[in-house]
Amino acid sequence: MAGTNDFLILANSVWAEKVSSKRIPAIYRVSKEKKVTFSTNPRPHRGLKLDQYFWSTSPLRRYVDLENQKQIIKT
């Protein structure tokens, strides 16, 4: 059975894919060789084994989430 974190990761991945497919700017989390950084270009998050990923599910805790939610609304 999937936990809450699994659903949040899925939501962030699905929205990142939708936003990137429409070429709307966003702030993505990317990882390579155990180093996690931010990028305005969708790139893989190797740690999560995802093609693209961003934070968008917690606008009360992180400003990045709020900005990415604004981009989701544009889709």
Plain-language structure description:
With 75 residues, the chain is of the alpha+beta class. It is 40% helix and 13% strand. The protein has 2 helices and 2 strands; from the N terminus they run αββα. A hairpin with a 2-residue loop joins β1 and β2. The relative contact order is 0.22.
Largest sheet: 2 strands, antiparallel
Radius of gyration: 12 Å
User: Which structural category do the helix and sheet elements fall into?
Assistant: alpha+beta
Spatial strand arrangement across the major sheet: 1-2
Shape estimate: globular
Brief overview, please?
With 75 residues, the chain is an alpha+beta fold.
Keywords for this structure?
75 residues, alpha+beta, two-stranded antiparallel ribbon, 2 helices, globular
